[in-house]
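Entry 14. Ran structure prediction on the chain below.
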Amino acid sequence: MLIPVVIGVTLITFVISNVIPANPARAWAGQKAPPEVVEEIAERYHLNDPLYLQYYYYITNLIKGDWGYSHSEHRPVIDCLRDYFPATFELTLWAMIIAIPIGIYLGVVSAVKRNKLPDHLSRVFALSGVSMPIFWLGLLLILLFYSYLGILPASGRGIAPSHTYTGLYLLDSLLSLDFKTFLDDLRHLILPSITLSYATLAVITRMTRSSMLEVLRLDYIKTARAKGLPDKIVIYRHALRNAMLPTLTVSGLSFAGLLGGAVLTETIFSWPGMGRYAYHAISTLDFPAIMGVTFLMAVIFVIANLIVDILYAYLDPRIKLGE
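Output, structure tokens:
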């Protein structure tokens, strides 16, 4: 179903983009551009053709790798995404590295210590993460660690490595054996990754707690304890593995969603990722850029769903793929 879903997303996005009451050719050319320039742009990008022909040209160019020209960046959309996506991927990857292990641990502790102090503290922590606006948390972290303590930078991505292999600054600086750049890039990554991870961490904590409470009531857990197995083996080997399916779903979809561009986090910390690019494209009516970001997000979501479904069979042997 991956390909039909992606095609459906392109169709829906294309229709929505074309019913917006705005003239993209005028936006690209500028408000002071003469009418002949606006008309030339409309003809060049088939904006005067019927919608079905415009969609045909869009799909055809998409398959060829021509995702359009971003007038807000003055270069092809595919080049913009090639530059901005690694920054968002690196930020999202570290946010999930923070969120997943801490969220699972807090969820397990909360379930095992139900209605005790650790459970109450964990639930308050999770509730604050779900409720607190991400921009407010980011501003608080900047105020504390940059303005008051002066130990971490407030914005930017850091120093670009001398050699670019993957577009991921930390990895490229390690591959280049440039440890000074690595430390500088790591310092720039700490605050935005913590900000981005907090809401996801809270959701993972709540989901893990709920799943663990349900699993701990099952008969096979009672049987394992009756056999005299240590609590750590019962909890982490038997209970946690079966409780991980909902957590895996939430983690996979959260990762895909954050990869689409954490607009607020990237804006607050001036992080040059897809979120800022998408926001700038929307504010300037850069339709090719909007379509390119949306298409990439759709592909990421369906691939993340596919990976989660495959991992289901690994975590739960009762699940058989293809049946």
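The chain has two domains: 2-66, 85-274+309-315. Will compare against last week's run tomorrow.
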